Sequence to fold (383 residues):
Amino acid sequence: MMEEEFDVPRFSAGEMARRRRAIEAAMARAEIDHLVAYGADRSGSAVQWICGWPVTREAALVVAPGERDVLLVQFYNHLPNARRLAVDADVRWGGPSTFDSVAELLSARAASRVGLVGPIGYRSHQRLASAAEPVPLDAAYTEMRLVKSPEEVEWLACGAALSDAGIIALREHATPGASELDLVAAIEASYLAEGGATHIHYLGVTAMEEPASCVPAQWPTRRRLRTGDVVTAEISASWWGYPGQVLRTITVESDPTPLYAELHEVAEAALDAVLGVLRPGARPVDVVTAAGVIEDAGFTIYDDLVHGYGGGYFPPVLRTAATMHSPLPDIEFAEGMTVVVQPNVITSDERAGVQTGELVAIGSEGPTRLHAVPGGMWRGGAG
Fold:
C-alpha cells in the first residue's frame, strides 16, 4: 500500500540536529543518561521541540544518546497522527498509565539518572524515581530556547502574520451592536483557514467616559459594544506551536477621550523608549529605566512590560521599577532572542488602561518587527 503524503510543515534536518546537539550537551553537563520530556493538555513545548509532536492529551518523550527516541502518546486514537508528525521517533501508546510505561522503559534500560522537563506531577515524579534518579532539567531547557534559530524566527513570523489577521478582523468588527463573543468568532475565523491555531485572544471592553476595565480579560462575555466604548486586545495566533503576539487599543465609533489619548501617548512613548534600548548586551535595568516614562506620567501597569516569547513564556520577565515583584534577573539580551514589548499603561485606580506593543526579534543592531500591522490607537470599523 502506497503511503499517503501528508502536507505538514517541518523544520530542516539541520535544525533538528542542532536541537539534538543542544539536548545531548545539556544531558552530558548534568551527567544523566536519559531525559524525559513531558506535556499534557496541549502544553509542554519540549516534546514538540525535540520530536515534532504537538502535545494533545498527554505525551512523554524518552531521549537517550545513541538510542531512537521513544514517544509515548495518549490517547490510543492519537497514535496515527503522532506517527505522521514525529517521524524520527518510535511512537507507542502510553498504556493505561503513561508514567508506568516510562518507568518500565527506564528500568529495562537500566537507566541511572534521568533528566525531567515539563509539568510532571508529584505522583508521576515518584513513579519515575522508582526507576532512576530524577534530575530537574527545566532550567537547562529554558536556556536552550532563549535564542531562536533563523528557522524558528521564520515560524514566529508566520505566527505573527496570523495574529495580525486576528487583530485586523477585530478592528473591522469592533462596531456598535457586536458582542464580545462576535469579536472572538471573527478573530478565530481570520486565521483558522490559513492553518493558524488559537493561543490566546484576550479582550477588554468598557465605556471610555465611565471606564471599569483596565486590562483585557481571558474569557469573553455577551456584552455588546456601544458608541464610545474602547476595546483593548492581546492576540496570539500560533503557527504549529510558534505564536505571534500583538496588542492594540480600538475605539468604537468615536475619538479617544482625553484620558485615553493621554494613556496611549504615554504607552507609545514607553514602547519607543524600550525598543530603543533592546539590543545585544542590553540588560534588564536598561529596559526598566527606559520604561520610567510611565511612572513619571503618574500612571502604572498591570501586566508584564517585557517578556521572552516563542515556545514558552521566557526570561527576562520585566515590569516597571515600582511594580517589579522580584530582583532584576542577571541576564543580557542577545541576538536571536524574541521578546514581547507591551506597555499596558493604566490609571492608578485600575479603572482605565490601554494596550500596545508586539513580538520583536533582537538583531545585531536592535529589534526587528515580526508584525506588519500599523501601531497607534485604532478606530473600529472596516475603514
Remarks:
- The chain has eleven helices and 18 strands.
- The first strand starts at residue 34 and ends at 40.
- Residues 150-173 form the longest helix (24 residues).
